[in-house]
Amino acid sequence: MADGLRKGLTSYGDAGFSLFLRKAFIKAAGYSDDALDRPIVGITNTYSDYNPCHGNVPALIEAARRGVMLAGALPMVFPTISLAESFSHPTSMYLRNLMAMETEEMIRAQPMDAVIVIGGCDKTLPAQIMAAVSADLPTVVVPVGPMVVGHHKGEVLGACTDCRRLWAKYRAGEIDDTEIEAVNGRLAPSVGTCMVMGTASTMACVTEALGLSLPMSATIPAPHAERVRSAEASGKCAAEMAKRKGPRPSELLTPASFRNAQVVLQAIGGSTNGLVHLTAIAGRTPHAIDLDAFDALGREVPVLVDLKPSGAHYMEHFHHAGGVPKLMKQLGDLLDLDARTITGATLRDVVAQAEDVPGQDAIRARADPIRPEGAMAVLRGNLAPRGAVIKHSAASETLLRHTGRAVVFESVEDMTLRVDDPELDVSADDVLVLRNAGPKGAPGMPEAGYLPIPRKLAREGVKDMVRISDARMSGTAFGTIVLHITPESAVGGPLALVRTGDMIRLDVAGRRIDLLVDDAELQRRRAALPASAPAPEWARRGYAHLFHETILQADEGCDFDFLRREGKD
Ligand code: FES
Fold first, then answer.
1. Among 67, 81, 99, 324, which is 20 to 30 Å from 508 by CA?
2. 85 ligand 1 Cβ < 6 A
3. Domain total of the chain
4. Widest CA span of the chain, in angstroms?
5. Using CA atoms, how far apart are residues 424 and 213, in angstroms rounded to an integer?
């Protein structure tokens, strides 16, 4: 196969002319023949004024370019879509697959022998890895890194666990308008991704465990010089991969590496979104994430990383304690350390270099875990025939086995309108139910699963309730919250049958979520559901139409059906 500038020539029916024309145009930018004869490393540019999490991307691109050139290759920077959580309507998850498609196609369309993808804000790394896996070009992932922590009245703050905690206090009347404004300016004190174990941090750690990024790259704070040096080293690594033509993602992503990623996902107290994204990535390979196997791992793997929302610290503390290599060292035989990484080294080589930091308490020993079980459990039951997920490491122990009366919200809009109504018939023992918030129903499975505690209960001091939905939740959130109920209600899942007043039983130890209504009544309710409706107004054209027609359920990673490795059935 052709290399460098000769790859993927534009079709004019004369290959010699195509190359001649390509060189003529690129020389307009001042490139020499020497530069154009080198292996090419593409570098994605996801800088955007709308994405403050990626504010350091220009510096990382500059460093990655330097690394590529120091190793004798030619860097070529190209733009791709950028997705920021709070600037993506209706939700960034709606756009993840668009970014994955666009990134994949631009990697394929333009001549490059390796690619560096630089990303971080929640959906960007999953989209970029899905793209790289499908394009199967040697790939180095460079996370932008987490923000440093904020401070308020002597308290350490982090986005966005503390955003939610302090907003809940404000809703409960415990802090006033002036203080919440002050907090607003202190929660995100630098560029970079959320510095708790939210989805961005989770995916950065999972990427490192998959061997797709350099050691320590998940945790180095975004503003640190070390982050820039890591980008330079990533550039060198990518140039070597371009020369060696490997390893490709298909050579690194094996059943063992996916199992390692799941072990790390459990041990870090990772985001539930991480499971959806890892499932989507695996769906681009011959391998798959089995939810029951993931749950079984969770019974075996302890939570060792003491980060919010499951624990107490923040990403910079995890980093200074030794980062993912140190965590993997502690996990030891729970991992397959023979798995390979982009540098050619194995994880065994990586953990051999892990730093011992005396006195650190962010990464616990196996004998002294934060929790003896992993972060997440997979639930089944008559409400979730294809599964649901709970992050029990961030839930209230007293609610993990609970039976309560359902209070049903028909949609995110319905919940927004009614949850704070003083007339709402709700008590602390009830189970809040949100439906039509799944991949297809919302659309895009928004992070609405963290239903707010009704204001009148919040003011009475209620901090947590059992909440269930077909939505997702930010990895930064805390609570006894059942998510990703599959199939979702919009495609006829049993969640569509729940009525206010029904009893619902949650049993996390037994891995069950059940609606305590007899089968005959459920059949009557199903028969009364409206027959399948035509595509809604929002789904008539464009990307929305594609999304509505092809989105898969959470247990399949919410990829589009035609983007999986084997394509459409
Ligand atoms: Fe970008 Fe949290 S908002 S990572």
1. 324
2. yes
3. 3
4. 77
5. 49
Quick check: is 423 in a domain? Answer: yes
**pTM here?**
0.96
The pair of three-digit structure tokens given for residue 366, joined into one six-digit string: 């196996």
Supply the mean pLDDT for the chain.
96
Predicted confidence (pLDDT) per residue in 38-77, tens digit: 999 999 999 999 999 999 999 999 999 999 999 999 999 9
- The type of residue at 200 is A
Q: Are 389 and 324 in a shared domain?
A: no
Which residue CA neighbors atom 2 of ligand 1 most closely? 194
pLDDT over 90 for what percent of the chain? 93
Give me the domain span that covers residue 157.
150-184
Burial of 436 (0-12, 13-18, 19+ CB in 10 A): buried
Closest ligand 1 atom to residue 193 Cα is 4
Q: Which residues make beta-bridge pairs with 117?
A: 141
For ligand 1, the distance from its centroid to the CA atom of residue 53, given in whole angstroms, is 6
Nearest CA to ligand 1 atom 3: 85
Indicate the burial class of 529 (C-beta count within 10 angstroms; 0-12, 13-18, 19 or more): exposed
Query: Strand pairing partners for 377?
Result: 390
Average pLDDT over residues 462-467: 96
What pLDDT does residue 478 have?
84
User: The tokens of 87 are what?
Assistant: 């600037």
Q: How far apart are CA 294 and CA 153, in angstroms?
A: 41
Is residue 125 in contact with ligand 1, taking CB distance under 6 Å? no
Each residue's pLDDT tens digit, 331-342? 999 999 999 999
Do 170 and 130 fall into the same domain? no
